């Protein structure tokens, strides 16, 4: 992950990063792809009563899922630092 940039606005917060897979770091050739239909800002899950609910993940959860699922890295080898756990929402 390169050049992370966290911005805040009235509409919400945004984290922009440049991602490179391991092969790109070795020889400059990008080998991974992320399908256009992939959505990182929310996910559906089931609560204790069996109801489907939509939740918003943290930036750390998004990065961890991206590196594990699309990058194939083991969860125990993923170290995330310098990403805030909470962000402030800008109020108008």
What is the number of helical segments per DSSP (H or I, 4+ residues)?
A: 2
Mean pLDDT over all positions: 78
Structural class: alpha+beta
Beta strand count:
4
User: Can you tell me the residue ranges where pLDDT is under 50 for at least 5 consecutive residues?
Assistant: none
- The largest beta-sheet arranges its strands as 1-2
Overall 3D shape: globular
Order of helices and strands: EEHEEH
User: Roughly what percent helix?
Assistant: 10-25%
Question: How would a crystallographer describe the biggest sheet?
Answer: 2 strands, antiparallel
Count up the domains: 1
What is the terminal separation in angstroms?
32 Å
Radius of gyration: 16 Å
Strand content: 25-35%
How would you describe this protein?
The protein has one domain. The model has no long low-confidence stretch (mean pLDDT 78). The strands form two sheets. The chain has a two-stranded antiparallel sheet. The chain has a two-stranded antiparallel ribbon with strand order 3-4. It is α+β, with helices and mostly antiparallel strands and 92 residues long. 20% of the residues lie in helices and 25% in strands.
